[in-house]
């Protein structure tokens, strides 16, 4: 599954266009490698996303094309959240 689609389906980022912008700005890494919006994800990958002054590390548990709002958080586990200075 594409990175931008996963971010939208998992509701980490609300819109796919916004997810694409964040990826294109170089604020996302997959398993330590710089990610593009079109990067392919697999279950077990680790994402590091920079949201403003926070670094969020996420482990991907599952990939699904559609998911209900209540089940969206089951697609990933937040490993850690760090505040940047």
Automatic annotation (TrEMBL):
The UniProt entry, under PROSITE patterns, shows: S4
What assembly does the database describe for this protein? Associates with stalled 50S ribosomal subunits. Binds to RqcH, 23S rRNA and the P-site tRNA. Does not require RqcH for association with 50S subunits.
Query: What lineage is this protein's organism placed in?
Result: Bacteria, Bacillati, Bacillota, Bacilli, Bacillales
Q: What does this protein do?
A: Key component of the ribosome quality control system (RQC), a ribosome-associated complex that mediates the extraction of incompletely synthesized nascent chains from stalled ribosomes and their subsequent degradation. RqcH recruits Ala-charged tRNA, and with RqcP directs the elongation of stalled nascent chains on 50S ribosomal subunits, leading to non-templated C-terminal alanine extensions (Ala tail). The Ala tail promotes nascent chain degradation. RqcP is associated with the translocation-like movement of the peptidyl-tRNA from the A-site into the P-site.
Gene designation per UniProt? yabO
Show where the RNA-binding S4 domain sits: 1-64
Keyword terms, alphabetized: Protein biosynthesis, RNA-binding, rRNA-binding, tRNA-binding
The record's annotation in HAMAP family points to: RqcP
Name of the protein in question: RQC P-site tRNA stabilizing factor
Q: Which InterPro entries match?
A: RqcP, S4_RNA-bd, S4_RNA-bd_sf
Xref: SMART domains: S4 (SM00363)
UniProt feature coiled coil, ranges = none
- Keyword field contains Protein biosynthesis: yes
Family matches, as Gene3D superfamilies = RNA-binding S4 domain (3.10.290.10)
Please give the family membership noted in the entry.
Belongs to the RqcP family.
């Amino acid at each position: 599954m594409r990175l931008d689609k996963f971010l939208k389906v998992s509701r980490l980022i609300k819109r796919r266009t916004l997810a694409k912008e964040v990826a294109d700005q170089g604020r996302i890494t997959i398993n330590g490698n710089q990610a593009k919006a079109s990067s392919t994800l697999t279950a077990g990958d680790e994402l590091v996303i920079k949201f403003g002054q926070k670094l969020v590390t996420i482990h991907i548990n599952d990939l699904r094309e559609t998911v209900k709002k209540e089940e969206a958080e089951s697609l990933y586990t937040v490993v850690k959240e760090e505040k940047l200075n």
